[in-house]
Specification:
The protein is an alpha+beta fold. It contains 4 helices and 13 strands. Strand 9 and strand 10 form a beta hairpin.
């Protein structure tokens, strides 16, 4: 009887040992499968099957993963522009440190163009600003999130970013070459409803990357005159004379 009980206990111990071996093998198998906490696109495998991987961390990376959707767009903003951006938030402006810490909540949008594109048609939302300004460059790094569900943007690509700083306003875009100078004044030549050349003094705004300049009227427009309806002369400026009639040739497709 005692021998039978001893044999039973030995068998139980063997079964328990076998279960522990199964659990250890399952754990080893689980460790052999590597998963990532975030979605993204994986790069090439740095280690192939048969390589020895140590637990000490001295071996090279297995591979790298980059986030695709949403994708982060990093760029640097100079200190002066960032201060202007902070002052234009709200009626009285905000402290620069408050702006940086609240970028994610402000949800400010920016536009960007890929390398080789001329139009800033892509959009993103500011999400993060660094906690210090780089003293060597006078800039601070920020990043925004860009929707990339169709995979149009590839990590590492170069872009040009346009971040609105001042408050929005209505302006007329004209070619830079259409703006003339008279001592300390700038003006454009327009054609009125009687095809007569008129002078209009303007205040210059920003210059776009396409060579277009934003202008505002320097003086109050005449009665029933709308700036958006100005027909600005852009060619043959040396041949026209103010207050004389011309035969304007309007671009095709305009009214």
């Amino acid at each position: 009887m005692e021998k039978a009980e001893a044999d039973a206990k030995a068998l139980d111990a063997s079964i328990s040992g076998a279960k522990n071996e199964i659990a250890r093998a399952q754990l080893d198998l689980e460790y052999s499968r590597i998963t990532a906490d975030t979605d993204g696109r994986i790069s090439k495998a740095e280690l192939s099957e048969g390589n020895l991987v140590n637990a000490g961390g001295s071996d090279p990376l297995l591979t790298t993963i980059v986030s695709i959707d949403p994708i982060r767009l990093y760029f640097n903003v100079d200190e002066r522009s960032l201060q202007r951006y902070a002052k234009n938030l709200g009626d009285t402006g905000r402290k620069l440190s408050d702006v940086l810490s609240a970028l994610k909540d402000v949800k400010s949008e920016f536009t960007f163009a890929l390398d080789g594109e001329t139009e800033f048609t892509h959009k993103g939302t500011l999400s993060f600003g660094d906690n210090r300004i780089d003293p060597t460059t006078g800039t601070i790094q920020v990043y925004g999130l860009v929707d990339n569900k169709y995979g149009a943007f590839v990590p590492g690509a170069r872009v040009r970013v346009r971040l609105p700083i001042g408050k929005s306003y209505q302006a007329l875009l004209v070619p830079e070459t259409a703006i003339l100078a008279d001592q300390d004044k700038r003006y454009v030549l327009i054609v009125d409803d009687k095809n007569t050349v008129r002078r209009r003094d303007v205040t210059l705004g920003r210059l776009t990357g396409e060579g277009m300049r934003a202008v505002l009227p320097a003086d109050k427009p005449a009665a029933n005159e709308k700036v958006e309806n100005w027909w600005v002369i852009v060619d043959n400026l040396q041949r026209v004379r103010i207050n004389y009639p011309v035969d304007p040739q309007k671009p095709a497709g305009t009214k």
